[in-house]
Structures are given as C-alpha cells and as structure tokens.
Amino acid sequence: MLDRQVVQITMARSAMASVIGGEQKGERLDGVVAVRARLTELAAAARSECLALLPALLSPQVCPATPPPLPVRWRGVYQDSLRGDPSTIRQARSLADRGGQARTTAAVPMLLFVVDRGVAVLAVGPHGDRCDAVVLHGSAVEGMHALFEEFWAAASPWGPPAVPSEPDLTAQQREVVRLLAEGLTDEGISRRIGVSLRTVRRIASELMVRLTARSRFEAGVKAARSGWIE
C-alpha cells in the first residue's frame, strides 16, 4: 500500500508541476466559476465515461451542475473527509442511482476530470476564489487517465453500510436522531428536549456507532433513510 501511495504522490506532483510550469499547453480556466462551467459542459457532452478525482477543498465548488447523461459511466474518487459532507453524500447517491461508482481515499491532492479518454481538466488550488486549471488533449490525457486509475485501485468503495431494520430505539434516542436529521446542533437538541448536553452527546455518539456514520448529520440522514424515524 505504501509503494502505491508513493507512486500516486509522485505522479500527482509531476502532473501539477507540468501545469504550473506551463509545460502542458491547453485552454486555461481562470477561477472556480470558469472551472465548474467547463466541467458541466464536458459532462453533458460525454459519450462513454467520466472519471474524477475530487479533493476536499475544490470538489464542493466545482462539481458539474448536472450529472453525465445515461448511459455514460461515472467513477469518482473522493477525499475521505467528504464522506460526511451532505452535498457530497447527495451527489454520490444520485450518481449511484444512475449506475455510477464512488470510492474514497485519505488524500486527493488535486482535482482531475477525464472524459471519454479524450479530454481532461486538471485544477490546482484553490487560492481564495481562484484556482489554476488547464484543459488537456492528446497524449497528456493518457497520463491523466493512468493517474486516475492509480487512485481508483487503491481507494475504498463507498457503499451503503448495513443498518439494522429494527433499531429498538428508546423515545429519547428516536427524538435525538430525528433532530440530528433536521441538522440541529447538540446544543440545540439539548434545549429542545430538555436534557443535558452531555446526555445528548452520549446518545449521538452511540447512534453514530450503530449507523457507522462519520458525522451527526450523516447519522440522522441514514436513520431517516432506513426507517428508524418518520
């Protein structure tokens, strides 16, 4: 695993250095808005596959506004920290419903989008509301495709965990998980149901373990989807 990570980092650094140093010539995209618009355009025009490396800092801002059309195959590698991000969870589930696949890994050093093995967008940043990006064609795309496959092979599947169908929750636990699903903070739940903050945190932690959730909000969402609450 360590050898694979070294290869990934080396390939990523080389690709980023080529873009920053101007070795790769291509269409330049200035700013997050321009990058997102171009990715949306490329996704809409895809015919066979869309591949994406999605880091925590960039992916929420620049992911395509609309998913690729069917039957385009989508594969995305997200950074682990995005597993608890509500918008990323919704996107991953929406794409999964359309036959897409998602995996996660500890670190994604840059945003990469490869369409039909014919065009790639490589973005580095962000710096405030700016990021350096370039649209690549030709032989450079093969290198980007190989880079994606390295990350994909080492990443962990992002599949729905098994959740007990009959949770046997107490009334207090059911109310806590319902309020978590609504997005309330621990402090807000404590005030709403009239119990101590310590009690709320204990119940929330126990529910997160049972639901294999990485955040309190995700625990609420999983509980609602699994029929634990109305």
Ends distance: 43 Å
- Order of helix and strand elements from N to C terminus: HEHEHEHEEEEHEHHHH
CATH H-level superfamily of the largest domain = Endonuclease Chain A
Please give the count of helices: 9
How many structural domains are formed by the residues?
A: 2
Question: TL;DR?
Answer:
With 230 residues, the chain is an alpha+beta fold. It contains nine helices and eight strands.
Defining traits:
single chain; 230 residues; alpha+beta; Endonuclease, Chain A; Arc Repressor Mutant, subunit A; 2 domains; 8-stranded mixed sheet; 9 helices; 8 strands; 20% strand; disordered N terminus
Describe the structure.
With 230 residues, this protein is of the alpha+beta class. Helix content is 47%, strand content 20%. The chain is built from nine helices and eight strands. The protein has helices at 2-20, 32-45, 59-62, 86-97, 139-154, 171-181, 186-193, 197-211, 216-225; strands at 27-30, 49-54, 73-79, 101-105, 111-115, 119-127, 130-137, 156-157. An eight-stranded mixed beta sheet has the order 1-7-6-5-2-3-4-8, with helices on both faces. Strand 5 and strand 6 form a beta hairpin. It starts with a helix and ends in a 5-residue tail after the last helix. The relative contact order is 0.14.
